[in-house]
């Protein structure tokens, strides 16, 4: 019985669709070992990992630097340590492709097998191909200029001065391509000062983009808004915004949209 069921798997081929590219995978490229017990198949799909790695090297955006054209028209390469992007999950791909073989289906869409990291582990930007995978709606922050730019459909809808994290190891705003995790209005931001004391700051608008607590918010308590404030009098890592513009920025941002910091 077991041998008969296992023989059904032999010589099959499944087309794996990733974005607009097709990968024809054979049973041997997907399954390392299979058993059949109590009416169920059990698979070891280690063989597939090699194929998934190749596909991710070509298509995936997670944990990779992005090429990005800034507001000034200059093209930069971001750092790779952000959270925005997607990749094919080896485990999910193994499950979906073996199921296709069992069911006799000839094509599988890789979009259902993606994963991400951070607050949203489902993966972001799979269907975004414009602007090197970032798209045309995003927030851009220049740490050198202490300026933020908010884009909707390729148009800058808000440009404003900001103060970023104090320029030291513990507080500087992390570079990379992140995403808006969620939004709260109002909110209370809690954390620790450099001297170990705790703080609880009330804000009207809060849009975090890192799991370590960095985000966009109004800073009504801040008096120093100079271009050099961040060098010694910056935030704990957040992007401080003047109360007069923080509301518009909040409404220009949406959950899961990219935040490019350089």
From TrEMBL:
<comment type="pathway">
    <text>Cell wall biogenesis; peptidoglycan biosynthesis.</text>
</comment>
<keyword id="KW-0573">Peptidoglycan synthesis</keyword>
<dbReference type="Pfam" id="PF03734">
    <property type="entry name" value="YkuD"/>
</dbReference>
<protein>
    <submittedName>
        <fullName>L,D-transpeptidase</fullName>
    </submittedName>
</protein>
<keyword id="KW-0808">Transferase</keyword>
<dbReference type="GO" id="GO:0071555">
    <property type="term" value="P:cell wall organization"/>
</dbReference>
<feature type="active site" description="Proton donor/acceptor">
    <location>
        <position position="217"/>
    </location>
</feature>
<keyword id="KW-0133">Cell shape</keyword>
<dbReference type="GO" id="GO:0005576">
    <property type="term" value="C:extracellular region"/>
</dbReference>
<dbReference type="GO" id="GO:0008360">
    <property type="term" value="P:regulation of cell shape"/>
</dbReference>
<keyword id="KW-0961">Cell wall biogenesis/degradation</keyword>
<feature type="active site" description="Nucleophile">
    <location>
        <position position="238"/>
    </location>
</feature>
<dbReference type="GO" id="GO:0018104">
    <property type="term" value="P:peptidoglycan-protein cross-linking"/>
</dbReference>
<dbReference type="InterPro" id="IPR038063">
    <property type="entry name" value="Transpep_catalytic_dom"/>
</dbReference>
<dbReference type="InterPro" id="IPR050979">
    <property type="entry name" value="LD-transpeptidase"/>
</dbReference>
<feature type="domain" description="L,D-TPase catalytic">
    <location>
        <begin position="137"/>
        <end position="262"/>
    </location>
</feature>
<dbReference type="InterPro" id="IPR038054">
    <property type="entry name" value="LD_TPept-like_central_sf"/>
</dbReference>
<dbReference type="GO" id="GO:0016740">
    <property type="term" value="F:transferase activity"/>
</dbReference>
<dbReference type="GO" id="GO:0071972">
    <property type="term" value="F:peptidoglycan L,D-transpeptidase activity"/>
</dbReference>
<dbReference type="InterPro" id="IPR005490">
    <property type="entry name" value="LD_TPept_cat_dom"/>
</dbReference>
């Amino acid at each position: 019985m077991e041998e008969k069921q296992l023989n059904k798997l032999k010589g099959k081929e499944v087309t794996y669709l990733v974005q607009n590219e097709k990968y024809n995978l054979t049973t041997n490229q997907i399954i390392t070992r299979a058993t059949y017990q109590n009416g169920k198949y059990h698979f070891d799909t280690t063989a597939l990992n090699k194929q998934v790695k190749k596909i991710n090297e070509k298509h995936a955006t997670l944990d990779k630097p992005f090429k990005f054209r800034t507001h000034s028209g200059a093209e930069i390469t971001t750092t790779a340590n952000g959270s925005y992007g997607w990749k094919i999950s080896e485990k999910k791909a193994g499950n979906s492709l073996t199921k296709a073989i069992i069911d006799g289906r000839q094509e599988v869409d890789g979009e259902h097998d993606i994963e991400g990291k951070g607050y949203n582990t489902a993966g972001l930007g799979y269907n975004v191909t414009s602007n090197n995978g970032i798209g045309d709606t995003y927030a851009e922050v220049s740490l050198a200029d202490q300026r933020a730019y908010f884009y909707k459909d390729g148009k800058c809808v808000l440009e404003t001065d900001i103060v970023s994290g104090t320029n030291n190891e513990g507080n500087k705003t992390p570079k990379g391509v992140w995403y808006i995790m969620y939004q709260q209005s109002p909110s209370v931001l809690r954390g620790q000062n450099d001297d170990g004391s705790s703080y609880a700051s009330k804000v009207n608008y809060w849009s975090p983009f890192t799991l370590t607590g960095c985000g966009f918010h109004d800073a009504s308590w801040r008096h120093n808004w100079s271009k050099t404030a961040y060098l010694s009098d910056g935030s704990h890592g957040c992007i401080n915004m003047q109360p007069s513009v923080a509301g518009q920025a909040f409404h220009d941002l949406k959950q899961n949209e990219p935040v490019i910091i350089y």
